[in-house]
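Because discrete structure vocabularies remain unfamiliar, we turn briefly to a single example record, giving the amino acid sequence and backbone structure tokens:
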Amino acid sequence: MKLKFVILTALLFGVLHFAQAQQSNLTHKDSLNHTLNQYYKLNLKVFQQNSTLKDIDNIFDLFTDDFTYVHPKYGGVYTREDLYNGYKRNQENGGYDGSVIDINIENIIYGLNAITVSKRFITKENGKMVEGDEQMALFEFKNGKIFMIKEYW
């Protein structure tokens, strides 16, 4: 009788541990996905003609203090401050004119504190919707915030 109780108890703890591990993985993945979706949603808002400095600030709330943006094709490594100033400059110069109307995420690969994304910008050109080239980006996370973005396009 004691042996059955021990086996049953061990089995129950094993099942509970497995269920908890599965829930933790889903929670981690869901958390990363939520932050990623917020990032793209907020960027889409900034790309509009009537965006404000507060809209840019909202994006940067998603970043760690030691955030880095890496884009080898367009200048290399940018600090958080460099990127912020670039957003402000683009906004002040009218670079955000509403031509980007959507961001289509085509594929996501999840890793430990990282997500790789395949996406396309959807723009409005001469009254028509145009799907841009496929682009790849790697997002790394630390303490629930975006630590680094590396663009591969």
Notes: DSSP finds three helices and seven strands in the chain. The longest helix spans residues 2-46. The chain has one domain: 2-151.
